[in-house]
Write a structure and sequence with these properties.
This protein is α/β, with parallel strands linked by helices. 35% of the residues lie in helices and 20% in strands. It folds into two domains: 2-189, Rossmann fold; 209-267.
Length: 271
């Protein structure tokens, strides 16, 4: 089978690492892959034809949000989309793929629209993989009108795609609730591939370890979590807070005691 994969960051951040794992697994099954991305931070298999097209110019974010709210279109990556379409649509046609697989998320829905345009030009089937539901749930973004407008930036691609995949049933059901047309009939679940690692259990102790799984960005702020743990730590000085995600948080910017800071540990995602 021959597959064209369109994505942005390959191997960088939680989403990029998931995409890299998906591509690695497809390559291990001896599928022939043409991968077009904006960045690549991993070594790829020999049976992958890789095209890296960097973002040379990005539309300013404030104007991007304004256009999304007013006109329901995103211009953030429009230059990249046009460049890839003009310069690589014939490469895709010559590759003669069985289908195009566009893999993106809420900030990179450009790959879905690019996938639709190239699929129409090459007359091949289109599959979309959503790493996250679009839009994210309430509270994900500071401005509700912007959050609700995001779905319109790639609704046509969702309607016309031949196949839609997501990581779990909860995300798929949530995505369906945000649409006025059915996608469940052409969707199935593709779990995020992760590397199996042995779990090492430490000896039992009286120390409490509180774990938060997720990343803080946009409307997601760690203030209450950190300040709450700081209060908890006063009565439970041995307790630790482990924050697992993609985070760059300076604890000096929050109302957290010096003792509590020593018990707050950051860990990266393992996917």
């Amino acid at each position: 089978m021959r597959i064209v994969i369109l994505t942005t960051q390959l191997g960088k951040g939680p989403g990029g690492k998931v995409v890299a794992n998906i591509i690695s697994e497809l390559a291990s099954q001896n599928y022939k892959l043409l991968v077009i991305c904006s960045e690549c931070h991993v070594n790829t298999a020999v049976n992958i034809n890789l095209k890296v097209v960097p973002f040379k110019w990005l539309f300013p974010m404030k104007l991007t949000k304004l256009f999304i709210v007013m006109f329901r279109v995103t211009l953030r990556h429009r230059y990249w989309q046009s460049y890839v379409y003009r310069n690589f649509k014939n490469d895709v046609t010559d590759f003669n793929p069985d289908f195009i697989y566009a893999i993106g998320s809420g900030g990179t829905q450009v790959v879905y629209n690019l996938g639709l345009a190239i699929a129409k030009y090459s007359n091949v089937r289109l599959a979309l993989h959503l790493l996250d539901p679009i839009p994210g749930p309430k509270g994900w973004e500071n401005y509700e009108i912007y959050r609700k407008s995001l779905i319109h930036t790639f609704k046509k691609s969702l309607k016309e795609a031949d196949l839609i995949t997501m990581g779990n049933h909860h995300m798929l059901e949530y995505q369906q609730r945000n649409l006025k047309f059915d996608i469940l009939g052409k969707s199935f679940i593709v779990p995020d591939p992760v590397v199996n690692k042995p779990i090492k259990l430490s000896s039992l102790s009286q120390k409490y370890v509180l774990t938060f799984l997720g990343s803080f960005y946009g409307a997601r702020k760690p203030d209450r979590l950190l300040e709450g743990f700081s209060e908890y730590n006063k009565n439970n000085p041995e307790a630790e807070l482990h924050i697992v995600g993609t985070n760059r948080i300076n604890l000096n910017h929050f109302d957290v005691s010096e003792d509590a800071k020593k018990k707050i540990l950051f860990q990266g995602f393992t996917t």
